[in-house]
Predict the structure.
Amino acid sequence: IEKKGYAPYFLVVADLLRFAHENGILTNIRGSVAGSLTTYLTGVTKVNPIEYKIPFERFLNPERPSAPDIDMDFADNRRDEVIQYAVKKYGEDKVAQVGTFGTMMARAAVRDVARALGQPYAVGDNIAKLIRLGSQGFPMTIDQALKITPELAQNYETDATVAEVINQAKKMEGCARHISVHAAGVVISPRPLIDFVPLQFDPKGGRIITQYDMHAVEDAGLLKFDFLGIRNLSILENTVKLAKEHRGVDVDIEDIPLDDKKSFELLAKGETAGLFQLNGAGMTKYLKDLRPTTIHDINAMVALYRPGPLESIPKYIERKHNARLVEFFDPRMKEILEQSYGILTYQDDVLMVAIKLAGYSWLEADKLRKAMGKKIPKEMAEQKSKFIEGLIKNGMSEHKAPELWKLIEPFAAYGFNKAHAASYGRVAYQTAYAKANFPAEFMTAVLTAESGDIEKIAEIITECHRMNIPVLPPNVNESFGQFTVIKSPDHRNDLVRFGLESIKNVGINVVAAIIEARTKTGRFKSLTDFIERIHHKDLNKKSLEALAKAGALDGLGERNQILENMDYLLAFSKEIKQARSLNQSSIFDNLIDSAPILKLKPSTPADPVVKLAWEKELLGLYVSSHPLAPYKEVLEKKTKPIKDLLASSLTVTVGGIINNYRKIITKTGKPMVFAQLADFSGEIEVVVFPDTYERKPDVWARDKTLLIKGQVQIRDNALKLICKDTKELNQVKSA
């Protein structure tokens, strides 16, 4: 490290992470950093490389020409605190976030060009919609879209306007469109930054950013520091805070036992919702089969659950449960693969095999890794012959050497390095520990972190119910701004309350006023008490209706009665405010014993279905119950949960409620429908072609509860259910 001149870099990173640790900001490191004893001893990483047998040379070796990357993860809600510390410590003139240039991808180029040519918005939009989304790392191009989308190609050939837009867009495609802020990159320089790079203000705010992108910044001689935000670290941080508030327990999440029985039982049962790196149907199935017992099992799953290595998971599971199946391709590989039962698991395994069995140097091994990652045919052919020659030269038979290459080749391009897997596996285990030992606190933290994403919130609430943790509507006497835990004496019956900030049309100022009044003078005893004490100007008809409809005032009055007396309530509130401001008595003061009291006119209680509709409108989802609740038994017996659907040619049956639907007329003049179907676990778009629609047109309406048979297909990069037949749920018997 010293000979390479990297000591200042290591010390700055250590200083940034020291600040984070001292201020209770959870951190993690990604990449190969955990392979360094120096980073472990300076507190940069919490993973002991000796204990995990992680080679330092994957991170840094004398032959490596460039500086190693130390990518720092921080709790995403506190990342800016660390950046501000860097600015304060190292100087405003020496610290800046890195600029990045957004380029015109196919869709954006088409829309921009159409607008610049003065065409109506619909022209560019219609062309852009015919260009499919590319896959990750392989963006779609206009030329490729013309080859694979017949309708786009036809429009290009027959419509002069479309042809002009596309021809001009092709010239613009790939050009820089705008500058913005890199998601993670920050530069810290030894002298004022203007000695190295041009600077500017961020177009969206007052931050200083570089006018060079990350590659040019490094070419100018500066080191880029990556400050990344991870939501799961925020979730862990919030769990620890809630555990302290509600249980009086101090949890040092950085120093928890790595053999916690509850955590491993949780994983073996497949209770993975909300966990870092360990959730999703495929991973959950493998964890149930694996029944992990050590942190090494978790690290291995994090590394293996990727294209390529994925095929090795069943063997890993078999060998874990049957030691007699463990074997090594070559006895010399035992030292490398003993911890993973003889299975190639990490990128480091390939590098170590190349070094120990084929005589590679670390520099040569790194070239092998890059060649396999890029899959360039010429480089791969050169590496193959070199690798096999090295194996034979070092004692392997001419017959076995090519077999080892075949074993390694498909794996190496996708393999995680061991240090990265250990770092991510550690956070994955921490989330499992938090969920197993502090379930209500953890799920509350997950709900808070995901607030704003209605689909995710619905999934998490379903998991809470499965865990016997009720999630209740907001309540002015118990809720805070965000989701909160309401504790029970034994913590077995803890529940979660929606936050008041979750309610549409109730601003944060009203929420703050409610919480402040409750904190100062206690719970609200009645509706009168509430109206009297909350005299904020923003408590108007809109916000009071929203509080009532969402159930936040249920403890003080019936929802419908409050709504039907709304004008009276607002008049009462106005009188109280005016009297208080003038220090006079109110006309309401003489109603009972000179104390103001409300007398609401009677009304019919709100219908349960209407109450659920209000919750859906104001909270984004059903909370106190669900329209599908009467059909829960039928759904469990006869349908597959939407979240578990996979693309398949097999017919599946799903059940749910129509949240939205759109009817269109096809080119042949026949109607068809696109409907959004939701069950307890998630949502999927249902495509109903004309012949199916015409058989039962009346069932396709908002809020209808249906049982649908169909095929799951991938269309426009999303799962869709192609409807073959349907039946209303109220006509289906559970038997």
Summary: The first strand starts at residue 27 and ends at 30.
